[in-house]
Design a protein that fits this description.
The protein has 464 residues and is of the alpha/beta class. It is built from 17 helices and 15 strands. The strands form three sheets. A seven-stranded parallel β-sheet has the order 3-2-1-4-5-8-9, with helices on both faces. Strands 12-11-10-13-14-15 form a six-stranded parallel β-sheet, sandwiched between helices. Strands 6-7 form a two-stranded antiparallel sheet. Strand 6 and strand 7 form a beta hairpin. Helix 1 packs parallel to helix 2. The structure holds uridine-5'-diphosphate.
């Protein structure tokens, strides 16, 4: 049996968790004598190409294995319910996988994300350390720690609370801004998330994809008063590093090559974000009225804000839903990319000067790492909380206000896009702050930096 400590990593379905967990594994095995196996739950369909390309790009001391498919998935339910179903459904195969890994390696720990906590008991059967990989930020973790108390003290839905909810070490939120899993207290998703929050104190450690200096106060409060004995490790900003540099360069990058430096606003709503027809029209008109260059990754409209979560693709031709004549009128300064674009490459391109984002945490970190100032347009998950932290606490993004029907109107879009891209007073402020934070984030992940120190502490814990 190999004597190097080995860890099993169990990401739940969806690229948003696999990517940072794989990056975490890479850093750990690169800098410490540790190896890893990523255990991938499946649902019977062929693994998505994006998933395979991440797995195939990993170094040889990070292995991966696919679990047997979980079948008969529930239909017409929220993505979180499907993910929880898959993670429950693959428990016995996780057990088999751990048993097989244990026979080959010195298996010491299981690392899972928020949906994988159901595997904690299984991992204890093998005497493994239990680590939670928290792909959100320290604020969201602090909120998760306070959830059991909030649950006890509140009757009814949080969205009806007459007072704001103060997250320890961070800002206050209106109940309706709290993360999606806690919005309907009677449903399975809430019960699952509450259960996770109650299990936090049983964990051996939590890796947070953020960095000490970005959320200094929140990490301080987490360690001092909130997390108790559970160790909290900031290990970010981890974003996907190996994004296929093959000869088939995406057309949109060639288009960017011809645009002036810092002149283009990227508009993208993550892997699953969708807008209503009305909202798509307002956005199109707002972009047009701003007179600025833009690259918009467009999906077919949907009334549900996360309709593309599993596929990352639109079901219909998205361009048919744009306002009449929009493409022709903006042909010289706008590019529409249907469904999916190489976001990191776009953000790292010289021509990109702003990012209108749904505030998914991966997108936010990608923007910070590449020094691109943001306009926050949260849609679902914990994005409303992220947006508030980015705009109110950290000054890294400008905010778009919605009207009484929840629509962001074209005049508002025009004004905020101009503020950022023309570098008005507010725009200048966030551009300056973002530059500073970018450089601090890079330091965190360089030798001796705060996140690298966390990795060393984790390695020490694994080797004990
Ligand atoms: N992404 C991409 N192209 C797209 C849309 C998204 O490469 O057209 C990537 C993006 O770079 C990020 C991830 O998908 O790494 C989205 O993660 P995030 O946490 O921002 O949002 P989610 O998709 O989980 O809502």
């Amino acid at each position: 049996m190999e004597n190097t400590p080995h860890i099993a990593i169990l990401p739940s379905p969806g690229m948003g968790h696999l990517i940072p967990m794989a990056e975490f594994a890479k850093r750990l095995v690169e800098h410490h004598r540790i190896s890893a196996t990523i255990i991938i739950p499946t649902t019977g369909t062929t693994p998505p190409k994006a998933q395979l390309s991440v797995l195939e790009s990993l170094p040889e001391n990070i292995h991966h294995l696919f679990l047997p498919p979980v079948e008969r998935l529930p239909e017409n339910v929220r993505p979180e319910i499907i993910i929880s179903f898959i993670m429950e459904g693959c428990l016995s195969s996780v057990k088999d996988a751990l048993s097989s890994l244990k026979s080959k390696w010195k298996l010491v720990a299981l690392v899972f994300d928020m949906f994988g906590h159901v595997s904690m008991e299984v991992s204890k059967e093998f005497n493994l350390l239990n680590f939670l990989f928290f792909p959100m930020n320290a604020m969201a973790l602090s909120f998760t720690f306070m959830l059991p108390k909030l649950d006890e003290e509140t009757s009814g839905e949080y969205k009806d609370l007459p007072y704001p909810v103060k997250v320890p070490g961070s800002v206050s939120f209106h109940g309706r801004e709290l993360m999606a899993p806690v919005q309907v207290r009677t449903d399975e998703v809430y019960k699952g998330y509450l259960l996770l929050s109650k299990k936090l104190s049983l964990l051996d450690g939590i890796m947070v994809n953020s960095f000490e200096e970005l959320e200094e106060e929140t990490f301080r409060v987490l360690r001092g008063e909130i997390a108790g004995k559970t160790l909290v490790y900031p290990i970010g900003p981890l974003i996907q590093s190996d994004t296929n540099n093959g000869p088939d360069r995406h057309e949109c990058l060639k288009w960017l090559d011809d645009q002036p430096s810092g002149s283009v606003l990227l508009v993208s709503f993550g892997s699953g974000g969708t807008l209503s027809v009305e909202q798509i029209h307002e956005l199109a008109h707002g972009l047009e009225m701003s007179s600025h260059r833009f690259l918009w990754i467009v999906r077919s409209p949907s009334e549900a804000s996360n309709a593309s979560f599993f596929t990352g693709a639109s079901q219909n031709d998205p361009l048919g839903f744009l306002p009449e004549g929009f493409l022709a009128r903006t042909v010289n300064r706008g590019l529409i990319v249907p469904s999916w674009g190489p976001q990191i490459k776009i953000l790292s391109h010289e021509a990109t000067g702003g990012f209108l984002t749904h505030c998914g945490w991966n997108s936010t970190l990608e923007s910070i790492v590449h020094g691109v100032p943001m306009i926050a347009w949260p849609l679902y998950a914990e994005q409303h909380m992220n947006a508030k932290v980015m705009t109110e606490a950290l000054d890294l993004a400008l905010r778009l206000e919605t009207d009484e029907n929840g629509i962001v109107r074209k005049e508002v879009i025009e004004k905020v896009v101009k503020e950022l891209m023309d570098q008005g007073d507010e725009g200048k402020k966030i551009i300056k702050k973002l530059k500073e934070v970018k450089s601090i984030g890079m330091k965190a992940l360089s030798n001796g930096g705060s996140s690298m120190q966390s990795l060393s502490k984790i390695a020490l814990q694994l080797k004990k």
